[in-house]
TrEMBL record:
Residues annotated as domain TonB-dependent transporter Oar-like beta-barrel: 337-573, 581-855
Species annotation: Acanthopleuribacter pedis
Gene3D superfamilies, alphabetized: Carboxypeptidase-like, regulatory domain (2.60.40.1120), TonB-dependent receptor, beta-barrel domain (2.40.170.20), TonB-dependent receptor, plug domain (2.170.130.10)
Name under which the protein is recorded: TonB-dependent receptor
PROSITE patterns named in the record: TONB_DEPENDENT_REC_3 (PS52016)
Location(s) in or outside the cell: Cell outer membrane
Mode of membrane association: Multi-pass membrane protein
């Protein structure tokens, strides 16, 4: 009879009702099967060996450690091979004492334990009778430069170091220091979004104290939190172990500050003055008639950031319980304008964070973290002209975001070799918008070829978005001989509430018909498209995983990492029906690390891993909710003074979606598999006698399979024609989630008789190529000191990112709906679609560091030179002659890889310019009373480089007419700006 909970056959059960039931069930399963669960990387580890002067292992030695700041103590006994290990250690500085009867004691006064890593140290004990012999010379302790037990690559920073560097106060700015990490598309939002290993910026994972804080709905970045509260940040760029899942890009892992045995208080203020910031260029370009048009208006851009922090920490009970609290009011003001509207925005938030740690005794501890990140933005809109400036007010719109976040964690050191940890947390994220004049519809006039806003409306829709993540983990570590086993159960539920309604009676767009227009109107005819878009419902996403990770110390020079993760992903419609259910996603993680000389200063490693990505909750909203998308196209007889249209006879009525929630069994291909990525990596690290560290790494990533939305209306109608010719044909958009290039199976009531037919469509029937994304990179890095005062880190990365899909997002046409972009919507859209992808940055050179000046001054620098991204020449597909079904032509227009009917393969229209940048800071530290004052000035983009980061990639309008400003800049790197900060702590 097999194990009562065999891992390979695991299929997560429905959500259990209580933590107690879940914890007991899983623990009994563990004990019954002889396995245990592991922990998340929210702490650090200490490993080592105890030997005698002849290098014989010493079992039975007592190892005692003490946290310098907290006073907490742990002890262990060395095993038969002399090894010892401490798991789940709070990060910080420790002292270590080794003792054994008959041998001299050895002490190590200072050893730093960093986030997510394992410090390695070997101790040599000398027998008492030889300890005073002049003929015996030994090294009592040796700290190893590299963690030979890990094959994960990346960086670990504490905030003390980031304070010396001119980087902005957010996790992505720090992550961009990592070799190979590139900045994502600026249209996806602020905060320096990051692409790791060729993945889109929506495929990363973000964690704070073990809690997943990745953006809930789209996965683009992380939710906001007070940066001052962060203690350490770990960036994982490759070789991520099995305890992490739900990502195929990179991982940014953080831990907050906490209290100690000393009371500390402090204040900090950060100020970005708007008057000292630069501006990007404003551009004009002639249209097809030769009239100069305002294309990009940056003349009115300005911003000012004020961030205040008040914090305190200390003991509640010395050596036992500690607190850390922070208040973080922040204010942000900015202005900008387009061609005819001026916007003045003010964002306010009063963030707070509190953390409590209670070390009940050496074996039991509790951690509690809570924070609130609610903020409100008020946008005032004004009439505007470039020559006359700001005019009359249109009114205000309001946006409320954020919510409460909290997590509770319990740690139990059952024995010296077995520990258990449970974590339960919730993340709330609302995003609600409203306006002063919701009765006014939105009017846009594009008859001149550019978009002109008409009327006094301030918002096109009213939105209510309320998202919640519930996360539970049960993790246990078990050391058995040379094996450090880590097993885990990870349960995450996402609840998504969405309600979108238009202002007024819809969204109006005015057009002037070009030649060969989709409605066969005479050229020059004016028409109006009134769009009514209403969406609402509550959907869900569930993820349950088991993982196992074995760190096998084969000997003191070689480690084998064997990991396995098994995951189930489920997505539900707004009627509560499951439409995506993918189980038994087996993800192996295998790594080997070798120290060829046994000195702890050389490391050769290799790694393979498979990573799965769930279907985005945003797809639930777009595909599996009640969505009404209706278009009323009519002749435009004139425009009233308030911007409203004078409407003539109706030309067309098109229903993209009718408001009904689609049946769950017609949304997802029943034969489809998960989205996953394979990663292969080999690397070398070396530390010299002078302390310099050098590294080399080669990485290959392959997106083996993706999940995309496609329309199957044409293939389904062909099936109906062949199998049920008397049944009605389907019209318009008929979406299906699938793996492009594969067969598809769905259930659909073709003839409306109440019985669903089983529809089988071959890959040839559908006509799509398989999705592909490849990434090859070679990386060199170096870090060390030049003299006593200069610390330098540098890296060079050559990489190639190519295929026919960027992944969940699409940068070349600014689509931030994960898995719901125009890619693969119709087969013709993928013609010539294979080539260099938007995150292909062939060359990256990064250099950063700090220099200690006299008189308590420090200067920091951060510079880079990165080659440009590939560009496209988008136009209308020449084969789109409608043939009675003009749907694709109307709704897609200039998104194909053609211009003037000539093929333009992906990425073949050149590249953006190289980007070069240098940031500098100057800091001064002054002792003042019992504390210290830190004053810092930072200059970002010192030389005010104005390299374009995006160029216009549409070479044709949707009508097929020439786009005159194709290839012209639309976005630039951020202009020069200054930041001042003052911090006082005692």
């Amino acid at each position: 009879m097999g194990s009562p909970c065999p891992f390979a056959a695991f299929s997560p059960v429905p959500h259990l009702k209580t933590l107690k039931t879940l914890g007991l069930t899983v623990l009994l399963c563990l004990l019954g099967s002889g396995t245990v669960f592991g922990q998340t990387d929210a702490a650090g580890q200490l490993r080592g060996r105890v030997i005698d002067h002849e290098t014989n292992p010493l079992p039975g030695a007592t190892i005692e450690i003490r946290h310098h700041q907290k006073g907490i103590r742990r002890s262990a006994v060395s095993q038969g091979n002399g090894s010892f290990q401490f798991q789940s250690l709070p990060i910080g500085t420790y002292s270590i004492r080794i003792s054994m009867p008959g041998f001299n004691d050895v002490e190590q006064d200072r050893l730093d334990i960093a986030l997510g890593g394992a410090a390695a140290i070997d101790f040599t004990l000398v027998p008492d009778e030889l300890s005073y012999s002049e003929s015996i010379t030994v090294t009592t302790s040796r700290i190893k430069a590299f963690d030979i037990t890990s094959t994960t690559t990346g960086l670990v920073f504490d905030t003390q170091r980031t304070e010396t560097l001119p980087v902005k106060t957010n996790h992505n700015a720090v992550a961009l220091l990592a070799p190979g990490a590139v900045q994502g598309d600026s249209d996806f939002g602020t905060g320096d979004l990051v692409s790791f290993g060729g993945a889109s910026v929506g495929e990363n994972g973000y964690y704070l104290n073990g809690l997943n804080i990745t953006d809930i709905r789209k996965g683009i970045g992380a939710i906001r939190y007070p940066w001052e509260a962060v203690d350490q940040i770990q960036v994982k760029t490759g070789g991520t172990p099995a305890e992490f899942g739900r990502h195929i890009g990179g991982v940014v892992n953080m831990v907050t500050k906490s209290g100690s045995n000393d009371f500390h208080f402090g204040v900090r203020t950060v100020w970005d003055p708007r008057d000292l910031s630069g501006q990007n260029p404003t551009t004009f370009w002639p249209d097809n008639e030769g009239n100069e048009q305002l294309i990009v208006n940056n003349r009115e851009d300005s911003s000012e950031w004020q961030d205040y922090n008040v914090f305190a920490s200390g003991p509640i009970v010395k050596d036992k319980a500690f607190f850390y609290v922070l208040g973080n009011p922040r204010r942000y003001k900015d202005t900008y304008a387009n061609t005819n509207t001026f916007y003045d925005r003010q964002t306010e938030g009063d963030f707070w964070l509190a953390k409590m740690d209670w070390y009940i005794n050496q074996r039991h501890s509790v951690e509690l973290l809570g924070f609130n990140n609610e903020q409100e933005r008020t946008t005032r809109s004004f009439a505007y002209s470039f020559n006359e400036g700001r005019g009359e007010s249109h009114g205000n719109s309001y946006r409320e975001t954020g919510g409460d976040v909290w997590t509770l964690k319990y740690n139990w050191a059952v024995t010296d070799t077995l520990s258990v940890s449970t974590m339960y947390g919730k993340v709330e994220a609302v995003d609600n918008t409203r306006a002063d004049n919701p009765e006014l519809p939105a009017y846009w006039d594009s008859r001149s070829g550019s978009w002109i806003r008409l009327g006094d409306w301030v918002a096109a829709s009213i939105n209510t978005k309320e998202d919640e993540r519930t996360n539970f983990r049960l993790d246990v570590d078990w050391v058995v001989g040379n094996h450090s086993l880590r097993f885990g159960y990870d349960d995450e539920d996402l609840d998504i509430v969405d309600l979108t309604t238009p202002t007024g009676d819809g969204y109006y767009e005015y057009y002037r018909a070009e030649a060969d227009n989709p409605y066969n109107l005479p050229e020059g005819t004016d028409y109006v498209d009134r769009r009514v878009f209403v969406r609402g419902g509550t959907t869900g996403t569930r993820s349950r995983s088991l993982y196992v990770q074995d760190t096998w110390l084969i000997n003191d020079r070689m480690t084998l990492n064997l990991g396995l993760r098994n995951t189930t992903f489920e997505n539900t419609t707004s009627q509560g029906e499951t439409y995506v259910d993918i189980s038994n996603q087996i993800a192996p993680r295998i790594g080997i690390s070798w120290d060829p000389f046994g000195e702890g200063r050389t490391k050769v490693f290799a790694n393979y891993g498979r990573f799965y990505m769930p279907v985005s909750p945003n797809t639930n909203v777009r595909m599996a909710s009640g969505e009404l998308d209706e278009h009323f196209v009519s002749y435009l007889l004139g425009v009233n003074p308030d911007g409203s249209p004078v409407i003539g006879e109706q030309i067309a009525h098109q229903v993209v979606s009718n408001g009904e929630v689609p049946a769950s069994d017609r949304l997802f291909n029943q034969e489809a598999g998960p989205m996953y990525n394979d990663e292969y990596m080999i690397g070398y690290q070396q530390q010299t006698n002078s302390g310099w560290r050098f590294g080399a790494r080669a990485t290959w990533r392959d997106l083996v399979q993706s999940i995309e939305d496609i329309s199957i209306n044409y293939a389904l109608n062909n099936w109906i024609e062949a199998n049920m010719p008397d049944a009605p044909r389907v019209g318009g958009w008929f979406p299906l989630l699938t793996n492009p290039g594969s067969d598809a199976v769905l259930n659909y009531d073709v003839d409306g008789d109440g019985t669903k037919e089983r529809i089988e469509l071959s890959a040839a029937d559908l006509g799509f190529p398989q999705s592909e994304r490849k990434y090859l990179a070679f990386e060199l890095s170096a870090e060390g000191r030049i003299g006593a005062n200069l610390l330098v880190a540098s890296s060079y990365t050559w990489s190639h990112n190519y295929g026919n899909t960027e992944g969940l997002l699409r940068s070349d046409n600014d689509q931030s709906d994960p898995g719901w972009t125009t890619s693969f919507d119709y087969p013709e859209l993928m013609d010539n679609g294979y080539g260099d992808l938007p995150n292909d940055r062939r060359h990256q050179l990064k250099l950063y560091g700090s220099y200690r000046l006299p008189a308590n001054f420090t200067m920091g620098f951060n510079g880079y030179a990165i080659s440009g991204r590939p560009l496209n020449s988008f136009g209308v597909h020449p084969g789109d002659d409608c043939e009675g079904d003009c749907y694709g032509r109307i709704w897609y227009g200039a998104v194909s890889f053609f211009t003037d009917g000539v093929a333009q393969p992906r990425g073949s229209a050149g590249r953006t310019p190289w980007q070069t940048n240098l940031d500098l800071n100057l800091a001064y530290k002054l002792q003042l009373g019992r504390g210290a004052v830190n004053i810092k000035a930072e200059v970002f983009n010192v030389f005010n480089f104005e390299r374009a980061t995006q160029l216009e990639e549409e070479a044709e309008f949707d009508s097929g007419a020439n786009q005159p400003y194709h290839g012209q800049p639309t976005h630039w790197q951020e202009p020069r700006s200054l930041r001042f900060s003052l911090r006082y702590a005692f």
